[in-house]
Design brief:
By secondary structure, the protein is α+β, with helices and mostly antiparallel strands. It is built from six helices and nine strands; from the N terminus they run ααααββααβββββββ. It starts with a helix and ends with a strand.
Length: about 325
């Protein structure tokens, strides 16, 4: 029996040594192999990616003249949108609505970005978490480097930016502007591009050509005059249509109202749609109104109706509820 106990103790010691070696514990007198000390990455570790799009820290960014901080918001593009693919991406009706991130994402990001831009004490409703390079120009939909809190009101606010985004989109899809050029100009200085748009679409001034009257015809009829009953050339063009916002362009002095028909078919009762707006110098009118996550997803319709000089015109445009 003593021999049996000795053999059992020896087996137990050998097993302990084997377990220690398997767990990486060195045993006395064992040779150290440097190649065994190198860490072996696990599959889970290999899949972890470091975030390169972190939101800047509070009060580290500054906006001036309607432009974001280039260091904080340089802009980012969507790799799926190139000059070769615009005919199947941004130039397809409804494309931007399909890739637009949910309001739950942008609203949360807006709060973080408002802290970064020093707007923590201001009302979130006065800002729009806007894409610097618009989705309709191939901007990245979710990258924080392409989003920033833009004021809705003011001379260089979100409503003006919506107009130049729509114009640049039409220019690109019509082949009059290259996609990369539109993206670059939007990221570098969208206000400057807006000024270029105004110059490109400016209404030509009326030029009166004097009539040539022969000296031998003193009884020539006087120049024709415009009849006071001639209908007014009133028009309405919706420049931005999204859930919570609609803006349009019409004639100066026109009195306009807005209506939002929700995907359910019901007319929105939001207070922001109630006031009647009078178009001022540039003919722009706009409404912002409250939204709710309880609204049925789908496609709704904005309708803007304007009246001036007894003439009434209206325009409609779709919007998407995510």
């Amino acid at each position: 029996m003593k021999g049996w106990d000795a053999r059992r103790r020896a087996a137990t010691i050998a097993m302990a040594v084997g377990l220690a070696a398997g767990c990486g514990v060195s045993t006395p007198g064992a040779a150290l192999d440097p190649s065994q000390n190198q860490p072996i990455p696990t599959t889970a570790g290999a899949l972890v990616q470091t975030s390169t799009a972190a939101v800047p820290p509070p009060n580290s960014c500054a906006s001036a003249n309607g432009l974001p901080d280039r260091a904080c918001t340089p802009g980012a593009t969507n790799p799926d949108v190139t000059q070769a693919t615009i005919s199947i991406t941004i130039c397809v009706t409804g494309y931007a609505a399909q890739i637009r991130p949910a309001a739950t994402y942008t609203n949360s990001l807006k709060i973080d970005h408002m802290r970064a831009y020093g707007y923590a004490a201001e009302a979130p409703g006065d800002f729009e978490e806007d894409h610097l390079i618009a989705l309709e120009l191939g901007g990245d939909p979710r990258d924080p480097k392409n989003l920033w809190p833009e004021r809705l009101a003011g001379g260089s606010g979100a409503l003006q930016k919506d107009r130049v985004e729509n114009w640049a989109h039409d220019e690109v899809c019509a082949g009059r502007m290259q996609l990369a050029d539109a993206q670059r100009r939007m990221a570098e200085n969208w206000v400057e591009l807006y000024t270029g748009m105004l110059a490109a679409v400016a209404t030509p001034k009326l030029t009166i050509v004097p009539a040539v009257v022969q000296s031998i015809a003193p009884t020539a009829p006087p120049p024709a005059t415009v009849s006071p009953t001639q209908p007014l050339a009133l028009s309405v063009l919706i420049s931005a249509s999204r859930y919570g916002l609609v803006s349009a362009t019409t004639l100066t002095g026109a009195s306009c109202s807005a209506q939002a028909r929700l995907p359910s078919g019901n007319i929105s009762k939001a207070a922001g749609l109630t006031p009647t707006v009078v178009a001022l110098g540039n003919g722009a009118v706009s409404w912002t109104y409250g939204t709710t996550t309880q609204t049925n997803p789908g496609t709704g319709t904005h309708t803007v109706t304007c009246t001036l000089g007894g003439v009434t015109q209206r325009a409609s445009a779709a919007f998407s509820v995510p």
